[in-house]
Amino acid sequence: MLYMAMGRSAPKRAHRLPKHIHDTRNLRVGLMGGSFNPPHKGHFKIANLAIKSLGLDEVWWLVSPQNPFKTSYETLPIMERYQLCIETAKHPKFRVLNIENKLKTTNSFSLIKRMLPRFPKMKFVWIMGSDNLYEFDKWHKVNELSHLIPFAVFNRKKLSLRSLNSKGAFILRNRVKNNMLKNLINQKPPRWGYLYSVNVNISSTEIRKSN
Fold this sequence. Notes:
By secondary structure, the protein is α/β, with parallel strands linked by helices.
């Protein structure tokens, strides 16, 4: 989308990691997990803003095999969603991965727990919308998860007040000030930041219903 506006195609990205994952690069990486059923311009907008606001080297779109809060019959096959993400995430700093499928994990806690030793020099921050923060207390081993990496929460229309006063916000505890967001990834968790500068109105559910 960014490159379309500039009148040229985006550079190709390698969307695969080695079979035996062990990456020793020193990078600041945002992890944007989700079912992406389907991916849309709101995902692109959040990922692009994360690069700028959080000072990231890359954003990894982590395509989940199955969202535990949704039934399988309403979810497209993972490889179809994976390919759709590649078509959507046309940016030199975006990478689309189905690492959760390869590591055979079924929740964010298990995924991050297994990822961290494989990327010893990387710093990670989890990227999510305020709708996820509102339901964060329902996630698997949420207290343990909050101690693994910092979280960056992006505003979703009509959800800012409810999410900021939710159980999820209480679990994440220490919220950093807006002028410290570029240092969020260096903070010892639990730490989180809230970004008001995006107001995403579109959702994957709305897209599916319109088709």
